[in-house]
Amino acid sequence: MKVTIKEVAKKVGVSTATVSLVLHGNSRISPETRKRVLKAVEELDYQPSQLARGLVLQRTGNIGFVLTENHFLRTEPFYTRIFLGTEFEARDSSFFILLATIPADFKENDVLPRFIAQKSVDGLIIAGKVPEQFLKRLIPYNLPVVFVDFYPQEGEHSAVLMDNLRGASLATEHLIRLGHRDIAFLAGDIKHPSIRERHLGYRSTLQQYNIPLNPQLEIIDEKTTGKESGFNAVCTLLSRGVKFSALFACNDAMAIGAMECLKKNGYKIPEQVSVVGFDDIESDVFQDPPLTTISVPKYDMGIEAMQLIRSTLENKMRTNKKIIVPVELVVRQSTAPFAR
Fold this sequence. Notes:
There is one protein chain. 41% of the residues are buried. The protein has helices at residues 5-12, 16-23, 31-44, 50-57, 78-90, 114-117, 132-138, 164-177, 193-208, 227-240, 252-264, 298-315, and strands spanning 62-68, 96-102, 123-127, 145-148, 158-162, 183-188, 218-222, 246-249, 274-276, 293-295, 322-325, 328-330. The chain folds into 3 domains: 5-48, lambda repressor-like DNA-binding domains (434 Repressor (Amino-terminal Domain)), CATH 1.10.260.40; 62-160 and 298-323, Response regulator (Rossmann fold, 3-Layer(aba) Sandwich); 164-296, Response regulator (Rossmann fold), CATH 3.40.50. It is an alpha/beta fold and 340 residues long. Helix 1 (5-12) crosses helix 3 (31-44), helix 5 (78-90) crosses helix 12 (298-315) and helix 8 (164-177) runs parallel beside helix 9 (193-208). The model has no long low-confidence stretch (mean pLDDT 89).
């Protein structure tokens, strides 16, 4: 049977109001009484209800997690892992995570997620790029927001970002050190801040090694960053007739699509073309050959986002804090030394 606050109060010999004040950190309670109450809570394994917490703290105890529909797919599990990170972290706190997706082309009159419209969340975690119209619709609700892998063009915001420039530099430098000079770059949705930074990292690393930039080796006008876009990008690259011995794709989905196109056209990987991706999704190790990539700590990004929104709510103070998580190169069998 579930222990009640009355039982805790009875065991300590204080009122239920005193127990409640202790549980919510009220400074009016003496250290001695606080210690006795907390000891009784532990011994009785008392678990305050979410509703009771909400009434005292004047909040719902819910955090909304929002991303676009195209980012919540089995074929692109990057944001799924970030969501799980927030969920794991929330289990150790007094918050619940509520998930909702919105259309990638969210329009002015589209329906908002119910937990926003019904004001049943205390704050939002927004993962990935979302339409400007959606952000405009949020303004009247005045909710604290933490962005993950995205940063709006306007305003100052709290965000958890990955080190895209460093990751792109590691990927490009890896290919250069293997002797490659004609290195292609594939991307879609180039206006996305992360993709734009990876493109910049690729270019700056080539310049660092005195390798001339060749726009013909860049395919950056694909609308999305999915596998099909990677396939189409390499087909376009091949149709140009430009020489390349390696390519760096802005994410793993595009890299996998690129590998499929190369194989279809008779190219051997990595003997003729080396391929590097970005993200380190689980299916990378099952590719033929396994994909060399930049590993992103996806769970950690979710954990950091949850800690950031929780801190904002508990301290009742909004910040413009930015957390940059490190990335690392994971070398597998899709890259090899340049064969002259």
